[in-house]
Every structure is written in C-alpha cells, then in structure tokens.
Amino acid sequence: MLTLHTVTLYHLRMPLVAPFETSFGRITHRECLVVEARDADGLIGWGEVVADRDPGYAYETAGTAWHILTDYLIPMALARPLEAADPAADFQARVAKVRGHHMAKAGLEMALWDLLGKRTGRSLRDLLGGHRDRVAVGVSVGIQPSPDALVETVARYVGQGYARVKIKIKPGRDVAETTAVRRAFPTLPLQVDANSAYTLQTAADLKPLDALGLLLIEQPLAEDDLWDHHKLQAQFHTPLCLDESITSPRHARQALEMDACRVINIKQGRVGGLHHAKAIHDLAQERGVPVWCGGMLETGIGRAANLALASLPNFRLPGDISATDRYYARDITHQRFALNADSTITVPEGPGLGVTVDRAALAAFTLRAVGLSRPT
Ligand code: SMG
Ligand code: MG
Asked: Is the pLDDT of residue 6 over 90?
C-alpha cells in the first residue's frame, strides 16, 4: 500500500520573462499550485496544478483549486492507504464523486505518479509506457502589437531553433498576422490558437487561413460547443484541433465520432491527470487520430510531466513544451530544460518526474502554504 503522511500545498506566483497575451488576456506573472506529497517512508512526490490566477482559459483558478484540494481531494487521499501498484487509478476512483475541478485533481495525481516512480525506481516515461528519449517541441507565441512585431518575435524563436510555431489569434488579429508570418516563413510548420474567441458566424472571417498550409486551427469556438466545431470543420480543409473542449475520454470519443476535430491537444491538467490523458491518447491512437501535448506555462515539475507524456507513440505533432528560458529566468526545479539542435527536448530519465525541487526558489515564489496530515 502507499500511505500518504502529509500533503503540503504551495500557491506560487512567478514572473515571466516577457508578458504573454492570448484572446482572453495578458499576463506578466504565472500563478499555480505545487503539491508535495510525503509518504509514510518519507519519500516525496511533487505535482503541479496548472490553474492560473484568473478564470480566463478555464473556470478553475489557483483559488478554486486550493479550496477543492484542501477541503476535498487531499483529505480523500489521506483517509486511507492508496493501492500501491496504481495509486493514480485508486485516487481517480475516490475523487470521481467530486464533479469537475480537473486541474486540482491532476496536480495531486501527478505527485502520486512521482511518488510511485521514486518508490519503484522507474521514470514517469517508463510508467506511462512512453518510448522516446526526446520529444519534438514547438513554441507558442502570444498576441503581439502588430503583424511586423509578430514576424520579428517569430524570427527570434526560429533563430533559437524552434522548428514549429503556434501563434495566438483573436477576432481582428488573425488573418493579417498569420499571413504575415506565412509570407516571412513559407515552409515553417505553423498553427494558430484562438482560445474560443469566435462563434460559428465570426469564424467565417478565418476562411483565408485555409490557404496558408497550417498544421491546424486550435479551439476556434466555445469550449462547450462540439456541434458547431463539427459544422466549422466541414467548411475547412485545415484540421481543427480541440483543446478546451476535450475534458475527458468521453468528450474525445464524441468529438472524433462527430468530426468536430481531426487532431487533439492533450493537457494532463485539463483532463484531470495523466491517467485520463493516457486514456485519450490510446483512444485517439486506435482511431488513427494524431495528438500533441499542450502546455500551461508549467514550472519544471509540470514540464517534466509533459515531456514524459509526450514520449507516448501517438504524440505525433510537436508539443507546446518549450525550453525553460522561454518563460522563466528562475524556475523551482534544479533542472532547466533546454532545446536540442533538432527542436526536441530530452525526456528526464530519473525516477518519477526526474526533477528535484529548489526549495529556496519555491520559498521565494510562495504566496501561501498549508500542510495536511493523515488523521491519527
Ligand atoms: O506552456 O508554452 C506553454 C503555453 C502554451 O499557448 C499555450 N497554452 O490554449 O494552448 C493554450 C494555452 C493555454 C495557456 S494561456 C495562459
Ligand atoms: Mg490552446
């Protein structure tokens, strides 16, 4: 059995090297929660809750996750020992009666995976069944002041070695921007992400994108709108990719059955953890649909988890997993992830996530912390 002794939650606020702007807002700092799960033998597993300060990308925030974790999820995990062979599955069964709150669940589940790896001496990649040593990655570029500024920013990342670029779009900041990047980089693997900023009607303005040879158009419409994505996909040759809309294996199956998308972005946080992320990967693989690993500006903890996840075979497009220095001058792990010359990042090899936490950095970014212990 895996007996948890104490779970400590940290609420962090970390400065970004540059502001990041999407269709729903602009951030200069990233907030998240870090989960430290200590077992009865004193081993520690780390997890990251990817919810940000504001409910712009999703309804969850660092604040809602704090509430759900401290009042429900952590007490459920501490209440009795977890199944040692598959603590994530046991945890998911326990928390199934908590509706939603996937990012909160995923953060604690990640710490259980890390603990499992440390207890068994196996890497997360190995535990998940991944087979790659390095994974192909791309960079996600926020909305810039003008098309020229965007081309300049993209050029800088291409110069750093990123071989795939995603640009954020919103109504009025879409066709001119994407066309300018395509003209400057005629063969660059390029994709766009709208973060639900369009309706079926306003998305008609995106039609010129169909001639730009994009890899995909990500989440143009509302997150709860599979059917209109189906209608829009019928009007485009470019594959639509769903991000926000796919919150479970069931949504993934339904989206594929109704041709609401032809590619899926998998984020372990959005779908409730690595356990469900792998299920979506497997389902898409069976149907011959490619997936790729999304990003939530993770710290070294979540970045390590994303790399392990992206080492699974059906991750066939480059992930939004950039090098640490794309977001952070100082991170909370001792390990910093660097871009290899072939636009890949090496998957950590050590037990569990394969990273160690810099406690001084963790303390420097912590706004609040609380520890909950096993009932005696
Ligand atoms: O981790 O590089 C990253 C961020 C990638 O663009 C990214 N994520 O919708 O896919 C997405 C966004 C969500 C985060 S926006 C604050
Ligand atoms: Mg997205």
From this structure: yes
What spacing in Å lies between the alpha carbon of 183 and ligand 2's midpoint? Answer: 24
| Of residues 366, 342, 56, 81, the one with CA closest to residue 223 | 56
Residue-level pLDDT at 90: 98
Say whether 166 is catalytic.
no
Please give the pLDDT value at position 163. Answer: 98
On whether both 264 and 133 belong to a single domain, the answer is yes
Res 376: pLDDT:
81
* Domain extent for 303: 126-346
State the catalytic residue, choosing from 105, 166, 267, 278: 267
* pLDDT tens per residue across span 220-233: 999 999 999 999 99
Same domain, residue pair 137 and 37 = no
In the block, which residue shows the tokens 């829009």?
232
- Per the structure block, which two tokens stand in for 243? 């991000």
Q: Which two tokens stand for residue 17?
A: 């090297």
Ligand 1: does its nearest atom lie under 6 Å from the Cβ of 228? no
Pairing type for strands 25-39 and 344-346 reads: unpaired
Question: Which of 164, 162, 4 lies closest to 79, judged by CA?
Answer: 4
170 is catalytic: no
> The domain that contains 270 carries what CATH number?
3.20.20.120
DSSP secondary structure, 158-199, as one string: HHHT---EEEE-BTTBSHHHHHHHHHHSTTS-EEEE-TT---
Instruction: Read off the CATH number of the domain in which 90 is found.
Output: 3.30.390.10
Mean of pLDDT values over 246-260: 98
**DSSP 8-state class, residue 274:** H
